[in-house]
Amino acid sequence: MASPPPFLYPLLILIISFLWQASAIQLPSTNGARYLGNFWSSSKTLPLVGKSKAPKYEYETKYFQQKLDHFSFADLPSFQQRYLINTQHWVGPSRLGPIFLYCGNEGDIEWFAANTGFVWEIAPRFGALVIFPEHRYYGESMPYGSKEEAYKNATTLSYLTAEQALADFAVLITELKRNLSAQACPVVLFGGSYGGMLAAWMRLKYPHISIGALASSAPILQFEDLVPPETFYNIVSNDFKRESMSCFNIIKESWDVINSVGQINGGLAQLTKTFHLCRKLESVDGLSNWLESAYSYLAMANYPYPTGFLMPLPGSPIKEVCRKIDGLPDGASVLQRIFEGINVYYNYTGKVDCFNLDDDPHGMSGWDWQACTEMVMPMASNKTTSMFPEFYYDPKLNEEQCLKDFHVKPRPTWITTAFGGHAFKSALKAFGSNIIFSNGLLDPWSGGSVLEDVSETIVALITEKGAHHLDLRAATAEDPDWLLEQRSSEIKLIRGWLDKYYDEKKATFSM
Ligand SMILES: *[C@@H]1O[C@H](CO)[C@@H](O)[C@H](O)[C@H]1NC(C)=O
Ligand SMILES: *[C@@H]1O[C@H](CO)[C@@H](O)[C@H](O)[C@H]1NC(C)=O
Ligand SMILES: *[C@@H]1O[C@H](CO)[C@@H](O)[C@H](O)[C@H]1NC(C)=O
Ligand SMILES: *[C@@H]1O[C@H](CO)[C@@H](O)[C@H](O)[C@H]1NC(C)=O
Protein backbone atom coordinates (compact mmCIF):
# COMPACT_ATOMS: atom_id res chain seq x y z
CA MET A 1 0.00 0.00 0.00
CA ALA A 2 1.37 3.38 -0.93
CA SER A 3 2.66 4.92 2.26
CA PRO A 4 -0.21 4.59 4.67
CA PRO A 5 -0.62 7.59 6.92
CA PRO A 6 1.62 6.99 9.90
CA PHE A 7 -0.86 8.29 12.41
CA LEU A 8 -4.50 7.97 13.01
CA TYR A 9 -6.75 10.86 12.58
CA PRO A 10 -10.08 11.39 14.10
CA LEU A 11 -12.49 10.38 11.45
CA LEU A 12 -16.03 9.54 11.33
CA ILE A 13 -17.03 6.31 9.86
CA LEU A 14 -19.51 5.71 7.23
CA ILE A 15 -21.86 4.27 9.58
CA ILE A 16 -24.97 2.94 8.19
CA SER A 17 -27.41 5.60 9.11
CA PHE A 18 -30.34 3.36 9.34
CA LEU A 19 -33.01 5.18 11.10
CA TRP A 20 -35.61 2.67 11.94
CA GLN A 21 -39.16 3.48 11.85
CA ALA A 22 -38.92 0.53 14.04
CA SER A 23 -42.21 -0.24 15.23
CA ALA A 24 -41.84 -1.43 18.59
CA ILE A 25 -43.76 -1.80 21.66
CA GLN A 26 -42.15 -1.89 24.95
CA LEU A 27 -43.58 -4.52 27.13
CA PRO A 28 -45.23 -3.87 29.40
CA SER A 29 -44.67 -0.40 30.77
CA THR A 30 -45.58 1.98 27.99
CA ASN A 31 -48.15 1.74 25.34
CA GLY A 32 -47.69 2.59 21.73
CA ALA A 33 -44.60 3.08 19.70
CA ARG A 34 -41.57 4.07 21.59
CA TYR A 35 -38.59 2.42 20.13
CA LEU A 36 -37.86 4.68 17.30
CA GLY A 37 -34.87 5.96 15.48
CA ASN A 38 -31.92 4.29 16.96
CA PHE A 39 -29.51 5.43 14.31
CA TRP A 40 -28.10 8.71 13.47
CA SER A 41 -28.46 10.16 10.11
CA SER A 42 -25.34 11.26 8.40
CA SER A 43 -26.68 14.75 7.87
CA LYS A 44 -26.75 15.00 11.61
CA THR A 45 -23.26 13.64 11.92
CA LEU A 46 -21.60 15.87 9.39
CA PRO A 47 -21.40 19.18 11.14
CA LEU A 48 -20.13 17.57 14.28
CA VAL A 49 -16.88 16.47 12.78
CA GLY A 50 -14.49 19.06 11.54
CA LYS A 51 -14.17 18.32 7.86
CA SER A 52 -10.65 19.64 7.93
CA LYS A 53 -9.70 16.77 10.16
CA ALA A 54 -10.70 14.18 7.63
CA PRO A 55 -7.93 12.89 5.43
CA LYS A 56 -7.78 14.73 2.19
CA TYR A 57 -7.81 12.69 -0.93
CA GLU A 58 -7.41 14.42 -4.20
CA TYR A 59 -10.26 14.45 -6.66
CA GLU A 60 -12.19 16.65 -9.01
CA THR A 61 -15.83 17.34 -8.27
CA LYS A 62 -18.11 16.99 -11.27
CA TYR A 63 -21.80 16.93 -12.02
CA PHE A 64 -23.76 14.74 -14.33
CA GLN A 65 -27.27 15.29 -15.60
CA GLN A 66 -29.43 12.38 -14.51
CA LYS A 67 -32.93 11.33 -15.31
CA LEU A 68 -35.23 11.61 -12.33
CA ASP A 69 -36.99 8.38 -13.22
CA HIS A 70 -35.09 5.72 -15.13
CA PHE A 71 -38.10 3.46 -15.22
CA SER A 72 -40.71 5.57 -16.92
CA PHE A 73 -40.80 7.71 -20.01
CA ALA A 74 -42.67 10.51 -18.31
CA ASP A 75 -41.29 13.93 -19.07
CA LEU A 76 -39.77 14.75 -15.70
CA PRO A 77 -37.12 17.27 -14.75
CA SER A 78 -33.55 16.01 -14.62
CA PHE A 79 -31.16 16.65 -11.75
CA GLN A 80 -27.43 17.08 -11.25
CA GLN A 81 -25.67 14.13 -9.71
CA ARG A 82 -22.37 14.98 -8.09
CA TYR A 83 -19.40 12.69 -8.48
CA LEU A 84 -15.80 12.80 -7.35
CA ILE A 85 -13.17 11.55 -9.72
CA ASN A 86 -9.41 11.03 -9.70
CA THR A 87 -7.56 9.91 -12.83
CA GLN A 88 -4.09 10.65 -11.50
CA HIS A 89 -3.00 7.03 -11.11
CA TRP A 90 -5.03 5.63 -13.95
CA VAL A 91 -2.96 3.83 -16.54
CA GLY A 92 -5.62 4.74 -19.09
CA PRO A 93 -7.78 3.02 -21.67
CA SER A 94 -4.98 1.71 -23.86
CA ARG A 95 -3.75 -0.44 -20.97
CA LEU A 96 -7.29 -1.24 -19.86
CA GLY A 97 -6.75 0.58 -16.57
CA PRO A 98 -9.38 -0.46 -14.04
CA ILE A 99 -12.06 1.83 -12.68
CA PHE A 100 -12.80 1.69 -8.96
CA LEU A 101 -16.32 2.85 -8.29
CA TYR A 102 -17.56 3.44 -4.75
CA CYS A 103 -21.35 3.14 -4.59
CA GLY A 104 -22.37 6.26 -2.70
CA ASN A 105 -24.76 5.66 0.14
CA GLU A 106 -27.04 7.68 2.37
CA GLY A 107 -25.00 10.82 2.92
CA ASP A 108 -22.70 13.44 1.51
CA ILE A 109 -20.30 11.74 -0.89
CA GLU A 110 -17.32 13.79 0.29
CA TRP A 111 -17.85 12.33 3.70
CA PHE A 112 -17.74 8.78 2.32
CA ALA A 113 -14.73 9.60 0.17
CA ALA A 114 -12.90 10.97 3.18
CA ASN A 115 -13.63 7.81 5.12
CA THR A 116 -12.95 5.13 2.56
CA GLY A 117 -9.19 5.33 2.65
CA PHE A 118 -8.82 1.76 1.47
CA VAL A 119 -10.01 2.55 -2.07
CA TRP A 120 -7.74 5.58 -2.38
CA GLU A 121 -4.78 3.74 -0.97
CA ILE A 122 -4.97 0.72 -3.26
CA ALA A 123 -5.86 2.60 -6.47
CA PRO A 124 -2.24 3.58 -7.34
CA ARG A 125 -0.97 0.03 -7.19
CA PHE A 126 -3.75 -1.06 -9.54
CA GLY A 127 -3.29 1.94 -11.84
CA ALA A 128 -6.96 2.59 -11.24
CA LEU A 129 -9.27 5.50 -11.84
CA VAL A 130 -11.33 6.28 -8.75
CA ILE A 131 -14.88 7.53 -8.87
CA PHE A 132 -17.31 8.24 -6.03
CA PRO A 133 -20.77 9.03 -7.37
CA GLU A 134 -23.20 10.48 -4.85
CA HIS A 135 -26.51 8.80 -4.05
CA ARG A 136 -29.51 10.78 -5.23
CA TYR A 137 -31.34 12.83 -2.55
CA TYR A 138 -28.18 13.11 -0.47
CA GLY A 139 -25.44 15.72 -0.30
CA GLU A 140 -25.64 17.96 -3.34
CA SER A 141 -27.40 15.49 -5.60
CA MET A 142 -30.86 16.87 -5.02
CA PRO A 143 -33.69 16.51 -7.48
CA TYR A 144 -35.97 19.55 -7.84
CA GLY A 145 -33.07 21.88 -7.17
CA SER A 146 -32.99 21.81 -3.38
CA LYS A 147 -33.38 19.54 -0.43
CA GLU A 148 -36.45 21.43 0.63
CA GLU A 149 -38.19 20.74 -2.66
CA ALA A 150 -36.90 17.20 -2.98
CA TYR A 151 -38.10 16.28 0.51
CA LYS A 152 -41.42 18.07 0.21
CA ASN A 153 -43.81 15.17 0.09
CA ALA A 154 -44.31 11.55 -0.87
CA THR A 155 -44.55 12.46 -4.54
CA THR A 156 -41.27 14.32 -4.73
CA LEU A 157 -39.56 11.68 -2.59
CA SER A 158 -40.85 8.79 -4.65
CA TYR A 159 -37.69 8.69 -6.79
CA LEU A 160 -35.52 8.01 -3.78
CA THR A 161 -34.99 4.29 -4.15
CA ALA A 162 -32.08 1.87 -4.35
CA GLU A 163 -33.16 0.86 -7.86
CA GLN A 164 -32.96 4.43 -9.10
CA ALA A 165 -29.60 4.90 -7.40
CA LEU A 166 -28.19 1.79 -9.08
CA ALA A 167 -29.50 2.98 -12.43
CA ASP A 168 -27.81 6.36 -11.80
CA PHE A 169 -24.48 4.58 -11.26
CA ALA A 170 -24.97 2.43 -14.36
CA VAL A 171 -25.86 5.35 -16.62
CA LEU A 172 -23.06 7.52 -15.26
CA ILE A 173 -20.31 4.93 -15.57
CA THR A 174 -21.43 3.89 -19.06
CA GLU A 175 -21.33 7.44 -20.33
CA LEU A 176 -18.09 8.24 -18.54
CA LYS A 177 -16.43 5.22 -20.13
CA ARG A 178 -17.69 6.26 -23.53
CA ASN A 179 -16.36 9.77 -23.01
CA LEU A 180 -12.97 8.41 -22.01
CA SER A 181 -12.95 5.75 -24.75
CA ALA A 182 -12.63 3.36 -21.85
CA GLN A 183 -15.44 0.95 -22.70
CA ALA A 184 -13.16 -2.04 -22.29
CA CYS A 185 -11.80 -0.97 -18.92
CA PRO A 186 -12.98 -3.21 -16.09
CA VAL A 187 -15.02 -1.68 -13.27
CA VAL A 188 -14.66 -2.87 -9.67
CA LEU A 189 -17.37 -1.84 -7.22
CA PHE A 190 -16.88 -0.92 -3.59
CA GLY A 191 -19.30 -0.05 -0.87
CA GLY A 192 -19.77 -0.05 2.88
CA SER A 193 -22.96 -0.54 4.82
CA TYR A 194 -25.91 0.46 2.62
CA GLY A 195 -23.26 1.29 0.01
CA GLY A 196 -22.08 -2.30 0.32
CA MET A 197 -25.61 -3.50 -0.28
CA LEU A 198 -25.70 -1.34 -3.40
CA ALA A 199 -22.35 -2.72 -4.58
CA ALA A 200 -23.53 -6.32 -4.17
CA TRP A 201 -26.89 -5.63 -5.78
CA MET A 202 -25.24 -3.74 -8.63
CA ARG A 203 -23.02 -6.71 -9.35
CA LEU A 204 -26.11 -8.92 -9.49
CA LYS A 205 -28.40 -6.60 -11.41
CA TYR A 206 -25.85 -5.12 -13.78
CA PRO A 207 -23.34 -7.93 -14.30
CA HIS A 208 -22.13 -6.36 -17.54
CA ILE A 209 -21.15 -3.12 -15.77
CA SER A 210 -18.59 -4.44 -13.33
CA ILE A 211 -16.33 -7.46 -12.94
CA GLY A 212 -16.70 -7.70 -9.17
CA ALA A 213 -17.77 -6.04 -5.94
CA LEU A 214 -16.38 -5.60 -2.47
CA ALA A 215 -19.42 -5.31 -0.21
CA SER A 216 -18.30 -4.43 3.28
CA SER A 217 -20.71 -4.79 6.22
CA ALA A 218 -23.63 -5.08 3.85
CA PRO A 219 -26.74 -6.44 5.60
CA ILE A 220 -28.51 -7.61 2.46
CA LEU A 221 -30.31 -10.32 4.40
CA GLN A 222 -31.74 -8.04 7.09
CA PHE A 223 -35.15 -8.18 5.42
CA GLU A 224 -38.42 -9.96 6.00
CA ASP A 225 -37.78 -13.18 7.91
CA LEU A 226 -34.37 -13.94 6.40
CA VAL A 227 -32.67 -13.47 9.75
CA PRO A 228 -34.36 -13.34 13.16
CA PRO A 229 -35.40 -9.78 14.02
CA GLU A 230 -33.50 -10.05 17.31
CA THR A 231 -30.18 -10.43 15.50
CA PHE A 232 -29.00 -6.84 15.67
CA TYR A 233 -29.63 -6.26 19.35
CA ASN A 234 -28.34 -9.68 20.28
CA ILE A 235 -25.01 -8.89 18.69
CA VAL A 236 -24.80 -5.52 20.44
CA SER A 237 -25.62 -7.30 23.69
CA ASN A 238 -23.01 -9.98 23.12
CA ASP A 239 -20.39 -7.32 22.48
CA PHE A 240 -20.98 -6.10 26.01
CA LYS A 241 -21.30 -9.57 27.45
CA ARG A 242 -17.93 -10.63 26.06
CA GLU A 243 -16.30 -7.74 27.87
CA SER A 244 -18.03 -8.30 31.16
CA MET A 245 -21.03 -10.23 32.34
CA SER A 246 -21.69 -7.79 35.15
CA CYS A 247 -21.57 -4.86 32.74
CA PHE A 248 -24.15 -6.60 30.57
CA ASN A 249 -26.33 -7.32 33.61
CA ILE A 250 -26.17 -3.77 34.94
CA ILE A 251 -27.26 -2.38 31.58
CA LYS A 252 -30.00 -4.96 31.37
CA GLU A 253 -31.19 -4.03 34.82
CA SER A 254 -31.01 -0.31 34.20
CA TRP A 255 -34.16 0.02 32.09
CA ASP A 256 -36.43 -1.05 34.93
CA VAL A 257 -34.57 1.19 37.33
CA ILE A 258 -35.00 4.14 34.98
CA ASN A 259 -38.67 3.36 34.54
CA SER A 260 -39.37 3.07 38.23
CA VAL A 261 -37.45 6.22 39.12
CA GLY A 262 -39.31 7.98 36.31
CA GLN A 263 -42.61 7.06 37.85
CA ILE A 264 -42.04 8.44 41.32
CA ASN A 265 -42.78 11.99 42.24
CA GLY A 266 -39.88 14.16 41.11
CA GLY A 267 -38.36 11.13 39.40
CA LEU A 268 -37.82 12.84 36.07
CA ALA A 269 -36.05 15.70 37.78
CA GLN A 270 -33.88 13.21 39.56
CA LEU A 271 -32.94 11.46 36.31
CA THR A 272 -32.25 14.85 34.75
CA LYS A 273 -29.79 15.55 37.52
CA THR A 274 -28.17 12.13 37.62
CA PHE A 275 -27.52 12.18 33.88
CA HIS A 276 -26.45 15.84 33.70
CA LEU A 277 -29.08 16.66 31.11
CA CYS A 278 -29.32 20.19 29.77
CA ARG A 279 -33.08 20.26 29.85
CA LYS A 280 -35.60 18.63 32.09
CA LEU A 281 -36.47 15.15 30.97
CA GLU A 282 -40.04 14.89 29.75
CA SER A 283 -40.32 11.15 29.60
CA VAL A 284 -38.14 8.19 30.44
CA ASP A 285 -38.29 7.13 26.80
CA GLY A 286 -36.14 10.07 25.80
CA LEU A 287 -33.44 8.89 28.16
CA SER A 288 -33.78 5.21 27.24
CA ASN A 289 -33.56 5.92 23.52
CA TRP A 290 -30.50 8.05 24.08
CA LEU A 291 -28.80 5.25 25.97
CA GLU A 292 -29.90 2.58 23.51
CA SER A 293 -28.46 4.52 20.58
CA ALA A 294 -25.16 4.92 22.32
CA TYR A 295 -24.84 1.18 22.96
CA SER A 296 -25.67 0.39 19.34
CA TYR A 297 -23.19 2.90 17.94
CA LEU A 298 -20.55 1.69 20.35
CA ALA A 299 -20.99 -1.78 18.91
CA MET A 300 -20.69 -0.54 15.33
CA ALA A 301 -17.66 1.59 16.18
CA ASN A 302 -15.99 -0.96 18.40
CA TYR A 303 -12.71 -0.48 16.58
CA PRO A 304 -9.38 -1.65 17.92
CA TYR A 305 -7.87 1.84 17.83
CA PRO A 306 -9.19 5.28 18.78
CA THR A 307 -11.49 6.91 16.24
CA GLY A 308 -13.70 9.92 15.92
CA PHE A 309 -17.13 8.66 15.25
CA LEU A 310 -20.13 10.73 15.97
CA MET A 311 -17.96 11.23 19.00
CA PRO A 312 -14.27 10.74 19.54
CA LEU A 313 -13.85 7.30 21.07
CA PRO A 314 -11.04 5.31 22.61
CA GLY A 315 -9.91 2.07 21.02
CA SER A 316 -12.15 -0.88 21.97
CA PRO A 317 -14.70 1.55 23.41
CA ILE A 318 -17.02 -1.12 24.80
CA LYS A 319 -14.23 -2.41 26.97
CA GLU A 320 -13.80 1.13 28.23
CA VAL A 321 -17.52 1.61 28.93
CA CYS A 322 -17.62 -1.63 30.87
CA ARG A 323 -14.49 -0.70 32.78
CA LYS A 324 -16.32 2.42 33.98
CA ILE A 325 -19.56 0.61 34.74
CA ASP A 326 -17.81 -2.13 36.68
CA GLY A 327 -15.21 0.15 38.19
CA LEU A 328 -17.33 2.10 40.66
CA PRO A 329 -17.01 0.94 44.26
CA ASP A 330 -19.49 -1.47 45.79
CA GLY A 331 -22.64 0.31 46.75
CA ALA A 332 -22.66 2.59 43.71
CA SER A 333 -26.11 2.68 42.21
CA VAL A 334 -27.07 1.23 38.85
CA LEU A 335 -27.81 4.68 37.50
CA GLN A 336 -24.49 6.05 38.67
CA ARG A 337 -22.73 3.22 36.86
CA ILE A 338 -24.72 3.77 33.67
CA PHE A 339 -23.90 7.46 33.83
CA GLU A 340 -20.18 6.76 34.15
CA GLY A 341 -20.32 4.31 31.26
CA ILE A 342 -22.24 6.54 28.92
CA ASN A 343 -19.73 9.33 29.48
CA VAL A 344 -17.26 7.29 27.47
CA TYR A 345 -19.52 7.60 24.47
CA TYR A 346 -21.03 11.05 24.83
CA ASN A 347 -18.21 12.82 26.64
CA TYR A 348 -14.90 11.17 25.89
CA THR A 349 -13.25 14.53 25.38
CA GLY A 350 -14.46 15.59 28.81
CA LYS A 351 -15.63 18.85 27.30
CA VAL A 352 -19.38 18.36 27.38
CA ASP A 353 -21.07 20.51 30.04
CA CYS A 354 -24.46 18.88 29.86
CA PHE A 355 -26.15 16.34 27.64
CA ASN A 356 -28.70 17.33 25.06
CA LEU A 357 -30.89 14.34 24.31
CA ASP A 358 -32.80 15.64 21.38
CA ASP A 359 -30.62 17.50 19.02
CA ASP A 360 -32.51 17.07 15.78
CA PRO A 361 -35.11 14.67 17.09
CA HIS A 362 -37.31 14.19 14.05
CA GLY A 363 -35.35 15.72 11.24
CA MET A 364 -36.67 14.24 8.03
CA SER A 365 -33.81 12.26 6.72
CA GLY A 366 -33.56 10.39 3.48
CA TRP A 367 -32.99 7.19 5.30
CA ASP A 368 -36.24 7.60 7.22
CA TRP A 369 -37.99 7.68 3.88
CA GLN A 370 -36.10 4.68 2.56
CA ALA A 371 -36.88 2.75 5.74
CA CYS A 372 -40.55 3.60 5.28
CA THR A 373 -40.67 2.39 1.69
CA GLU A 374 -38.31 -0.41 0.65
CA MET A 375 -35.70 -0.75 3.38
CA VAL A 376 -37.97 -2.39 5.89
CA MET A 377 -35.67 -4.20 8.26
CA PRO A 378 -37.52 -5.89 11.09
CA MET A 379 -35.93 -5.37 14.50
CA ALA A 380 -36.81 -6.76 17.89
CA SER A 381 -35.30 -7.27 21.28
CA ASN A 382 -35.89 -10.41 23.29
CA LYS A 383 -35.26 -10.33 27.00
CA THR A 384 -33.80 -13.81 27.10
CA THR A 385 -30.79 -12.82 25.01
CA SER A 386 -30.69 -9.06 24.82
CA MET A 387 -29.68 -6.39 27.32
CA PHE A 388 -32.14 -3.95 25.74
CA PRO A 389 -35.73 -3.45 26.81
CA GLU A 390 -37.96 -6.05 25.29
CA PHE A 391 -39.92 -5.14 22.22
CA TYR A 392 -41.21 -6.98 19.23
CA TYR A 393 -41.50 -6.11 15.61
CA ASP A 394 -44.94 -4.97 14.61
CA PRO A 395 -45.43 -4.34 10.89
CA LYS A 396 -48.82 -2.73 11.51
CA LEU A 397 -47.42 -0.15 13.84
CA ASN A 398 -44.56 0.48 11.45
CA GLU A 399 -47.02 1.12 8.67
CA GLU A 400 -49.06 3.52 10.79
CA GLN A 401 -45.95 5.45 11.69
CA CYS A 402 -44.85 5.72 8.06
CA LEU A 403 -48.29 6.84 6.94
CA LYS A 404 -48.17 9.46 9.63
CA ASP A 405 -44.63 10.66 8.89
CA PHE A 406 -44.51 10.40 5.11
CA HIS A 407 -47.96 9.45 3.86
CA VAL A 408 -46.45 6.33 2.45
CA LYS A 409 -47.01 2.65 3.00
CA PRO A 410 -43.95 0.43 3.39
CA ARG A 411 -43.54 -2.58 1.12
CA PRO A 412 -41.77 -5.07 3.38
CA THR A 413 -41.44 -7.77 0.73
CA TRP A 414 -40.22 -5.63 -2.13
CA ILE A 415 -36.47 -5.86 -1.53
CA THR A 416 -36.49 -9.64 -1.42
CA THR A 417 -38.66 -9.68 -4.52
CA ALA A 418 -36.41 -7.29 -6.40
CA PHE A 419 -32.99 -8.42 -5.20
CA GLY A 420 -33.59 -11.89 -3.82
CA GLY A 421 -33.05 -13.21 -0.36
CA HIS A 422 -34.98 -16.40 -0.02
CA ALA A 423 -32.92 -19.15 -1.59
CA PHE A 424 -30.25 -16.51 -1.86
CA LYS A 425 -27.35 -18.92 -1.76
CA SER A 426 -28.48 -21.36 -4.40
CA ALA A 427 -29.55 -18.54 -6.70
CA LEU A 428 -26.24 -16.71 -6.36
CA LYS A 429 -24.23 -19.86 -6.66
CA ALA A 430 -25.98 -20.65 -9.91
CA PHE A 431 -25.70 -17.29 -11.60
CA GLY A 432 -23.43 -14.95 -9.66
CA SER A 433 -19.70 -14.44 -9.26
CA ASN A 434 -17.01 -12.15 -7.89
CA ILE A 435 -18.49 -10.66 -4.76
CA ILE A 436 -16.64 -10.28 -1.49
CA PHE A 437 -18.83 -9.96 1.58
CA SER A 438 -16.53 -8.65 4.28
CA ASN A 439 -17.69 -8.39 7.86
CA GLY A 440 -16.45 -7.93 11.37
CA LEU A 441 -18.43 -10.06 13.76
CA LEU A 442 -18.58 -7.40 16.47
CA ASP A 443 -20.63 -5.27 14.09
CA PRO A 444 -24.34 -5.69 14.82
CA TRP A 445 -25.02 -5.47 11.07
CA SER A 446 -22.92 -8.54 10.41
CA GLY A 447 -25.83 -10.75 11.46
CA GLY A 448 -27.79 -9.63 8.40
CA SER A 449 -24.92 -10.05 6.01
CA VAL A 450 -23.39 -13.01 4.21
CA LEU A 451 -21.01 -14.83 6.53
CA GLU A 452 -20.27 -17.97 4.56
CA ASP A 453 -18.82 -18.55 1.14
CA VAL A 454 -21.59 -18.95 -1.40
CA SER A 455 -19.35 -20.29 -4.15
CA GLU A 456 -15.73 -20.21 -5.17
CA THR A 457 -16.03 -16.60 -6.30
CA ILE A 458 -18.69 -15.28 -3.93
CA VAL A 459 -16.83 -15.30 -0.70
CA ALA A 460 -17.16 -14.17 2.89
CA LEU A 461 -14.19 -12.58 4.62
CA ILE A 462 -14.82 -12.50 8.32
CA THR A 463 -12.85 -11.03 11.16
CA GLU A 464 -13.90 -11.96 14.64
CA LYS A 465 -12.83 -8.68 16.16
CA GLY A 466 -13.78 -6.31 13.38
CA ALA A 467 -16.60 -3.76 13.57
CA HIS A 468 -18.60 -1.83 10.98
CA HIS A 469 -16.66 -1.85 7.67
CA LEU A 470 -13.36 -1.43 9.40
CA ASP A 471 -11.64 -2.82 6.29
CA LEU A 472 -12.62 0.19 4.18
CA ARG A 473 -11.01 2.66 6.51
CA ALA A 474 -7.60 4.11 5.81
CA ALA A 475 -4.63 2.14 7.04
CA THR A 476 -3.23 3.18 10.39
CA ALA A 477 -0.05 2.24 12.21
CA GLU A 478 -2.17 0.44 14.77
CA ASP A 479 -3.97 -1.93 12.43
CA PRO A 480 -3.90 -5.39 13.95
CA ASP A 481 -2.63 -8.33 11.89
CA TRP A 482 -6.08 -9.79 11.33
CA LEU A 483 -7.15 -6.55 9.68
CA LEU A 484 -4.06 -6.44 7.48
CA GLU A 485 -4.82 -10.01 6.47
CA GLN A 486 -8.42 -9.22 5.63
CA ARG A 487 -7.37 -6.31 3.45
CA SER A 488 -4.65 -8.28 1.75
CA SER A 489 -7.14 -11.07 0.93
CA GLU A 490 -9.39 -8.45 -0.61
CA ILE A 491 -6.56 -7.07 -2.70
CA LYS A 492 -5.62 -10.54 -3.84
CA LEU A 493 -9.17 -11.37 -4.87
CA ILE A 494 -9.58 -8.11 -6.76
CA ARG A 495 -6.25 -8.73 -8.47
CA GLY A 496 -7.51 -12.18 -9.41
CA TRP A 497 -10.70 -10.78 -11.01
CA LEU A 498 -8.64 -8.33 -13.02
CA ASP A 499 -6.07 -10.89 -14.13
CA LYS A 500 -8.80 -13.18 -15.30
CA TYR A 501 -10.46 -10.34 -17.17
CA TYR A 502 -7.20 -9.43 -18.87
CA ASP A 503 -6.44 -13.04 -19.76
CA GLU A 504 -9.83 -13.40 -21.37
CA LYS A 505 -9.35 -10.16 -23.27
CA LYS A 506 -5.98 -11.35 -24.52
CA ALA A 507 -7.46 -14.65 -25.59
CA THR A 508 -10.15 -12.79 -27.52
CA PHE A 509 -7.63 -10.50 -29.20
CA SER A 510 -5.40 -13.33 -30.28
CA MET A 511 -8.22 -15.38 -31.69
C1 LIG B 1 -46.04 17.48 -3.65
O1 LIG B 1 -45.39 18.69 -3.95
C2 LIG B 1 -45.45 19.00 -5.34
C3 LIG B 1 -44.54 20.20 -5.58
O2 LIG B 1 -44.89 21.27 -4.77
C4 LIG B 1 -46.89 19.21 -5.77
O3 LIG B 1 -46.94 19.51 -7.16
C5 LIG B 1 -47.65 17.93 -5.49
O4 LIG B 1 -49.03 18.11 -5.77
C6 LIG B 1 -47.50 17.52 -4.03
N1 LIG B 1 -48.05 16.19 -3.88
C7 LIG B 1 -48.76 15.83 -2.83
C8 LIG B 1 -49.23 14.43 -2.79
O5 LIG B 1 -49.00 16.61 -1.92
C1 LIG C 1 -19.52 13.17 -21.44
O1 LIG C 1 -19.27 14.19 -22.35
C2 LIG C 1 -20.35 15.08 -22.55
C3 LIG C 1 -19.97 16.03 -23.70
O2 LIG C 1 -18.76 16.66 -23.41
C4 LIG C 1 -20.66 15.81 -21.26
O3 LIG C 1 -21.73 16.68 -21.42
C5 LIG C 1 -21.00 14.78 -20.19
O4 LIG C 1 -21.22 15.40 -18.96
C6 LIG C 1 -19.88 13.76 -20.06
N1 LIG C 1 -20.32 12.74 -19.15
C7 LIG C 1 -19.57 12.31 -18.16
C8 LIG C 1 -20.15 11.28 -17.27
O5 LIG C 1 -18.45 12.71 -17.95
C1 LIG D 1 -17.68 15.43 30.92
O1 LIG D 1 -16.45 15.04 31.45
C2 LIG D 1 -15.83 15.99 32.30
C3 LIG D 1 -14.47 15.49 32.70
O2 LIG D 1 -14.57 14.23 33.26
C4 LIG D 1 -16.74 16.26 33.49
O3 LIG D 1 -16.17 17.25 34.30
C5 LIG D 1 -18.11 16.72 32.98
O4 LIG D 1 -19.00 16.88 34.07
C6 LIG D 1 -18.67 15.70 32.03
N1 LIG D 1 -19.92 16.19 31.44
C7 LIG D 1 -21.10 15.65 31.72
C8 LIG D 1 -22.26 16.23 31.01
O5 LIG D 1 -21.26 14.76 32.49
C1 LIG E 1 -38.39 -14.28 23.13
O1 LIG E 1 -37.91 -15.58 22.88
C2 LIG E 1 -38.71 -16.60 23.47
C3 LIG E 1 -38.01 -17.93 23.27
O2 LIG E 1 -37.39 -17.98 22.01
C4 LIG E 1 -40.11 -16.55 22.83
O3 LIG E 1 -40.94 -17.53 23.39
C5 LIG E 1 -40.71 -15.16 23.07
O4 LIG E 1 -41.96 -15.05 22.43
C6 LIG E 1 -39.78 -14.08 22.55
N1 LIG E 1 -40.31 -12.77 22.92
C7 LIG E 1 -40.55 -11.80 22.01
C8 LIG E 1 -41.04 -10.51 22.55
O5 LIG E 1 -40.40 -11.95 20.82
UniProtKB/TrEMBL annotation:
> Might you name a Gene Ontology BP term for this protein?
proteolysis
Pfam families assigned to the protein according to its UniProt record, in alphabetical order: Peptidase_S28 (PF05577)
Could you tell me which InterPro entries the record lists for this protein? AB_hydrolase_fold, Peptidase_S28, Ser_carbopepase_S28_SKS
Q: From the Swiss-Prot or TrEMBL record, what is one GO molecular function term?
A: dipeptidyl-peptidase activity
* Entry keywords, A to Z: Carboxypeptidase, Glycoprotein, Hydrolase, Protease, Signal
Q: Name one GO cellular component term.
A: vacuole
SUPFAM superfamilies xref list = alpha/beta-Hydrolases
Signal peptide range equals: 1-24
Family membership, please give it.
Answer: Belongs to the peptidase S28 family.
Output this protein's name.
Answer: Lysosomal Pro-X carboxypeptidase
User: From what organism does this protein derive?
Assistant: Nicotiana sylvestris (Wood tobacco)
